[in-house]
Amino acid sequence: WSVNLFDCATQTTLSQTPAVASIGLAFAQDGSLLAFSRSKEVVVLDARTGSVRHVLEGHRTTARGLAFSPDGRSLASVGGDRRLIVWDTFGGTPRWSVIAHALGATDVAYAPDGRTLATIGEDGVLRLWHAELQQLLLEIPLSFDPVAQVEFSPDGRRLLRRHKSGQGDDD
């Protein structure tokens, strides 16, 4: 596996970085940073040059879901180790960490205002967290799903969950 950063205007490859089973990918909203998971690590690149800014180490198993805060100052990651880690994107250090789910966490999303994080995991629970106060705000029991994803609507009033419905083919 590798992660390639392309410049569409010039049709050139800016960087190619080995990823070793990368699952999570995210761009900062201003386009200045991008992140991808590389096994237990999260790699943060300068999106303009493709150079590595930080290699974040904190997950004990594969980092799966990634999301930048709207201001780009924080990056949230979740993984098979059940953890939610919120990173300082400038210093490359953890701001806070919590065991977010009873089973592996599969995805994370920031609300557009940056104050709320949503996580979803294999335990079938959607959790909302206060991003600054590091507090659990709400738990919504759903169905078990090992590959669920979550995303806020642009106004932050709704959440979208993608999951395997259990009907039909796996693909």
Question: Can you summarize this structure?
Answer:
The chain is mainly beta.
Strand content: over 45%
The Rg value, from CA coordinates, equals 16 Å
| Most strands sheet | 4 strands, antiparallel
Shape: globular
Annotation field: number of helices: 0
The average pLDDT score comes to 87
Low-confidence stretches: 167-171
**Which bin fits the share of residues in helices?**
under 10%
Furnish the topology, listing elements before pairings:
Layout: E1 2-7, E2 12-18, E3 25-27, E4 33-38, E5 41-46, E6 52-57, E7 63-68, E8 74-79, E9 83-88, E10 93-99, E11 105-110, E12 116-121, E13 125-130, E14 135-141, E15 149-152, E16 159-162
Antiparallel strand pairs: 1-2, 3-4, 4-5, 5-6, 7-8, 8-9, 9-10, 11-12, 12-13, 13-14, 15-16
Structural description of this entry:
The chain has about 170 residues and is mainly beta. Helix content is about 0%, strand content about 55%. The protein has no helices and 16 strands. The protein has strands at about 1-5, 10-20, 25, 35-40, 40-45, 50-55, 65-70, 75-80, 85-90, 95-100, 105-110, 115-120, 125-130, 135-140, 150, 160. The strands form 5 sheets. The chain has a 4-stranded antiparallel beta sheet with strand order 3-4-5-6, with no helix packed on it. It has a 4-stranded antiparallel beta sheet with strand order 7-8-9-10, with no helix packed on it. Strands 11-12-13-14 form a 4-stranded antiparallel beta sheet, with no helix packed on it. The two termini are about 20 Å apart. Mean pLDDT is about 85; it is low at about 165-170.
